[in-house]
Amino acid sequence: MELGLYFAFILYAFVTSITPGPNNLLVLSSGVNFGLKKTIPLVIGICFGFSIMFIVVALGVNQVFIRFPIVIPVLKVCGSLYILYLAYLIAQAGSIKNDNKIMLKSLGFWKGAIYQWINPKAWIVLMGAVTSYTYNMTEIIEIISIAALYMIVGFPCVLLWAVLGDKLAQFLIIGNRMQIFNRSMGLLLALSLIPIIMM
């Protein structure tokens, strides 16, 4: 890939990783409810899962979508239902004093990694990246290097949302602010599906 395309890809990775979406809203909520340390495995899982998905799709799985276009709406529906379920869990989380054990079980490295496969925004970002930046790549090492580059750029962007959540927690411990925040985050996570569904 030409140097100019690398810079364009870095910009693409930065913009798609830093902007609000299901991943970042989930990370923000986790940072608020469980702190930075417990949210880091989720952040790593999201970045790792997306990179693995990138490699698999770039190596030819995208041909499945071309041959069987019905797969895309099925993924959208399944992913959207799971995001609505996560939105419900977040909205039901109470104050910071509560254990929130139901939600805690939903977070972590493996959940973050697997979640990418049913996250509609992840698929949209991925298909844009694969079709724009890896269309003429034949060597697997090139594809792996691009996926690694996305992870290197994406990790600090997603981590920033966890840090923001961790800092917000200090403000939200007063009164019922945490409950209001969790309900707002649940609603925002659900609303984040609107532009995805409209595509």
Question: What can you tell me about this protein's structure?
Answer:
By secondary structure, the chain is mainly alpha-helical. The relative contact order is 0.23. 82% of the residues lie in helices and 0% in strands. Helix 1 packs parallel to helix 7, helix 2 packs antiparallel against helix 7 and helix 2 (22-67) packs parallel to helix 8 (177-191). The protein is built from nine helices and no strands. It has one domain.
Topology:
Elements: H1 3-18, H2 22-67, H3 71-92, H4 101-104, H5 109-115, H6 120-133, H7 140-172, H8 177-191, H9 193-198
Helix pairs in contact: 1-7, 2-3, 2-5, 2-6, 2-7, 2-8, 3-8
Give me the strand/helix succession.
Answer: HHHHHHHHH
Helix content: over 70%
Give the low-confidence spans. Answer: none
The chain-level structural class is mainly alpha
Q: What is the overall shape? A: globular
- Total number of helical segments? 9
List the domain count as a whole number: 1
Strand percentage, roughly? under 5%
Biggest pleated-sheet summary: none
What's the total count of β strands? 0
Radius of gyration: 17 Å
Distance between the termini: 29 Å
Mean pLDDT: 83
InterPro entries: LeuE-type (IPR001123)
Subcellular location: Cell membrane
Membrane topology: Multi-pass membrane protein
Protein name: LysE family translocator
What's the gist of this structure?
This protein has 199 residues and is mainly α. It has helices at residues 3-18, 22-67, 71-92, 101-104, 109-115, 120-133, 140-172, 177-191, 193-198. The chain contains 9 helices and no strands.
